Amino acid sequence: MKSRSPRTTRRDLLRAGAGCTAALMSSGARAFASGSLDSPAARDTLVLVFLRGGMDGLSLFVPVGDADYYIQRPTLGRDAQRTINLDGFFGLNDAAAPLYPHFAAGELAVVHGCGIAHPTRSHFEAMRRMEEAHVGGGTFGSGWLARHLQATPPVQAGGGRAIAIDRTLPTAMQGGFASIPIPRLAEFGFSGPLATQVARANRLDAMYSRASQPDRGGGLTALDLASTVDAIDFTRAPSGGAVYPSSSFGEGLYETATLIKAGTSVEAVEVDYGGWDDHSHEGPVGGFFAGRIHDLANGLSAFLTDLGPDAERTTVVVMSEFGRRVDENGAGGCDHGRGGAVMVLGGSHVNGGVVHRLWPGLQSQNLDDGALPVSIDIRHVMAEILTERMGTADLAAALPGFSPTPLGLVT
Amino acid sequence: MQQSSTQALPPGSGLPAGPPAPRDTIAWLLSRATFGFTPEDAAEVAARGHDGWVDWQLNASSISDAALEQQLLQWPWLNVTPHEALADPSLDPFELARDYKGVRLVRAVHSRRQLFERVVEFWADHFNVFMGRFTRIYEDQDVWRAYALGSFRDLLGAVTRSSSMLAFLDNDDNIAGAGHENLAREILELHTLGVDGPYTENDVREFARCLTGWNYVSDAANPAFGQFVFEAGNHDTGPKSVLGFSFSGATGVNEVETILDYLANHPATIRFVTRRLAQWLIGDDVPEDAVTAGAVTWHQTSGNMKEVVRTLLSKEVTLPLVVAGTTKFRRPFEWICAVLRSTGVAVPNPAAAHALMQRLGQAPFEWPAPDGYPDERSRWVGLVQPRWAIAAEFTRASTSDWAHTQGSLLSLVAGVPRAGWAQRLNRVLTGHRLSPFDVASIQAHIQSLPAQASDSVVFAEALELAFSCPSFQTL
User: Fold this and answer.
1) Which residues of A touch B442 (CB under 8 A)?
2) Range of the domain at A107
3) Nearest-by-CA chain A residue for B399
4) In this structure, are strands B240-242 and B245-247 parallel, antiparallel, or unpaired?
């Protein structure tokens, strides 16, 4: 990274206005935020939801039309009356019913049997490969989203480009520009005595500008976003009567919607959801899994409702490192599998109401060592969203060595 | 030697000619082998020599830790059994869990057995358990601390029998005819051979069958609640084939012990664990030579971790790294430890310590996956804002939890004029490891403040910047 381009961040405002009051600074930052709304966003905000642990796609989008499903899962298998019919073959687990209106309205597309084209069944290897979009030997050492951001000029010069609502930066965002983790946006800002706030921020700016990477990027992005995020009201009431679940996932989505509505430089937000490693007592009906997908569905539904018109410039992708084996184990759960269910949500640009699949059938001989095979490479999904919605300048840099075929998920 | 290394440097590289100054090797060693530099520790290294100090620290039990032990006595719940804890109505499970996490910070900051604490921290991630179902992770005292500098085989065995690990990876649900692979997979992938190690999916499933019946006493009314129990009735007694071993099914608990014997000193395990340990102690881009040196010691000592650590931190292995000037990014826990150790400020009460670590992003026992808190630089460099915020509060003692006052911190620069404060801070906080530009920036800030401002106000500004600047974030 060479010298940073001119920009109108809070840090510049701080430089210009040494000694200014807090009120002046926040009005300056607001001017910055509203200025970006005047120029229509050239691309979406991408919201990544990574379900850590291996979400059992077969228990969320249930293949009720495949008789072998009930043979492989004699106790976990749901009867068709307890699912909501999606297309005659798949039923939506009714614990996730809040997703149905969005599917019916064409705002939700599902890709089943989707994942990373590598046989690993390790959580950590599969996550790394999915987030790096890497199937070969060794490692890329950077995330797919990070490489997109690296190859693609920002919508507006300066400012943070990607945020993970988390303690650490996920692999998808590693190695890119202006990407940091922020555990809670509402608590983010620059503190200390007001009288010296400008001077101290400028000193940190100067010192981090001299540091080597990636430390420099981390510090400078934190300074940039401290001004942007500090100016946003994280106590606003959700729009459209949306009610977020009172979970950390719901809170993360509320903060994300608030950020999107404020119109900032941020192009991508990741909100992770852990706890999907259902080796035992999975409970797809009335149990642990049912509780999680209920929270997931409520959160995503509230998010789209709250966004309202801003959903037209937002694309959500929900993924997990793998699905789970088709056959249930003896402990009321399922061990690590391969193909999972990916969701794409947003406004009218999503060609929803469809479950994309190349279904092999769930007879044992059609499976990949007991698991639903990966029949659709998740890089097709990534490529289409980067191309159609994120204005990627160099898809080959984001997804090296891959020739994508659009699935028609988004327009 | 001195001349040839001087000649090897490109002109104008700015690197010091010849071997590093003793004060730099001492500061480097303390940055890795302790939770934060203090001038007192530097004097100790100078007196004992590099390898002598490491040897002294490795014989941790011979180092008197009376002050810490006295401090810990105020929390008698540290030594109650799980059964006693549940039976005692004065112990609230939520508060117990929170305070137990807080005590980790007390030990890391105040123990004189600093290298031992560093190794405990490593095992806490290598054998990570999440404090979910339990109000305490008993391993901290009974497993990691008991075996941290002992035989890896003993440590691995104790972890595999520990109630927290058995519960965390659901092995209480892994019973004959109704098994699952969770614990078996992570022992192979995370604890021993590594994800690229020589095992197959079939090995995972067969090893899981060996682990059936490995459980803990789950009846809270039983005084043995939480202790390991092998439930023969839940053990799969069928024949098994795993990692080249064949079991008839009649050997019960010994199947797993046989596999652990094999895994503990397997070359893949040695390489994988030694590399992780070397990265933890030395830095991200650990040279292959250092890993090899550690692995050779592991082979020669059958996994005596005290000797492996001695090799990795030996002057011979580490000197080239001091010369190369590679750095490691402090994790949040390391950062707050360094702040407290360098200022001599006591850890606040366990509840406040826990809240502090949560704000920073790294509270003990709160990483939910079995791989432990990450150690990679790129995962943490963006999370500096919480440090800046806490530095701003700490240096002014502006929240009530602290045991110091804004004025008391001035003792760090006692007798030094303002014009020398930044240099003084560089020496006492890090042993001269801040960057020259950062030191100059801190001094420039001091000079920019009104001359009539009080010493304590100006010093708080300087100290805040010292804890917030980029070179304090690295080891």
Assistant:
1) 203
2) 42-150+161-173+241-258+266-398
3) A192
4) antiparallel
